[in-house]
Write the structure tokens for this entry.
Amino acid sequence: MFALSVFSRQSAALPNTALRPPGALAEADFVSACIRCGLCVRDCPYEILALADLGEGPAHGTPFFVARTGPCELCDDIPCVAACPSGALDRALTDITQSKMGVAVLLGRESCLNLQGLRCDVCYRVCPLINEAITLDRRHNERTGKHAILEPIVHVDKCTGCGICEKACVLEEAAIKVLPTRLAGGTHDAHYQFGWEAKQEAGGELVPGLIDLPDRGPALPGGGS
Amino acid sequence: MKLSFTPGKRAFEMHGLWFANRYLIARRLTQAFFMALFLTGPWFGLWIAKGTLASSWTLDFLPLTDPLILIQELLAGTWPEMVAIVGGLIVTLSYLLLGGRAYCAWVCPINPITDLAAMMRRKLAIKKGWTPKRNLRLYVLAGILITTLISGSLVWELINPITSLHRAILFGTITGAMASLAIFFFDLFTAQHGWCGHLCPVGAFYGLLGEGSMIRVSAVARDRCDDCMDCFAICPEPQVIAPALRGERTGTGPLILSGDCINCGRCLDVCSENVFRFTHRFDQRLQSTSDIDAAGQLCQKGG
């Protein structure tokens, strides 16, 4: 039984290419909630979902999809969530654009055509949240000296992790990939705060009456400061 | 008397092939029917039952959920959707009516596999082998439930051979079905009725349900029993028969009330004297000899 328990913990480690359907609970909760019935798989109109086989990676029998072969098409009515009897896909998700299946990350900076100064733009164009989840950031092309580089920037707070950009990437191996959120984004320590945010929240200085001492510069030749 | 390796031979000689296998045939047809309900969708696009034995929708109208999986989910700390709870209640009530382990005999996809192993054991005259106590499966059931509670994860569903096999057939996840193969060889070479009869926690769970189930087998004409032992030889849970069949000495009624009985009806098939029949759990009647003669003649006409 102990072995089974350890086995279950190992099975909770989701491979990085496997994404859960929209509305999925956090991985550990998902594995304890999903009853592996396959109703979400059956009700997905694009048939992107599969149930994991033994040894395939995700916990045996649980649903997943792989963005590169079949991304989530972001149905408005979210039929997979509606089909789920177990609560593993949370019905609190009613707006598909709010789903967080993962986060797209531009990993192949050396291979991405846009970053070499070419106008591919495919990930940007196909994104269902164009100009929100992916924007193009214009900067100078140092190589040619006279052109622009339009860098695709993914905005973590908007990206649903649907994987349509990864599917569409024209390279043999996609330069932009959807990663599970836990891998894609950094997380601060709980106590950490940005000073300017804390200041705004508090409506002023957090520590009143700070003495503003004069800044000391480097000693100038001939004395004085 | 020694257990026969060819139980049902005399029933076959007296009543014919169909009559001596009527419940076996009915069960195979029922098992195929339940599988077909799920398969018409993926094969022909005609959706009757969606999902798996874990949880399903039939004709977008009837939700069904395995109550044991629901219990595991609750122990793992998740509250399921209302539809799953309703589905679990429907299944629970159905098996309280039909006999808890009727699931094992009439629905479970592992049953044909272990039946095949049992048949081959008889044909190859393999001795009983490892015979742990029957209640071992109750400990297995308790074990998986405690492990689920501690780990907060549906550990049993990672290896459950029943739902694995069902998913393998419906979704093509073949590796997951390897456990079925292991069960076949375990039942064939290691232990007679090893999996279903001693280990399976799902069967143990439905057995507990079956302690109160409505439809039961009764040794209604037990005074006609000629001690041929064929029912004991064919029965996957033979310990349930004796109290009812030999109950005259102990003053026990003719009903097989043990939850272990899977209501497979094989005792009805192989009994050449038509001692058994299906009835409800409150039917304590015994059949007199003259009734049986009439019934036997009818059967022969019908068969």
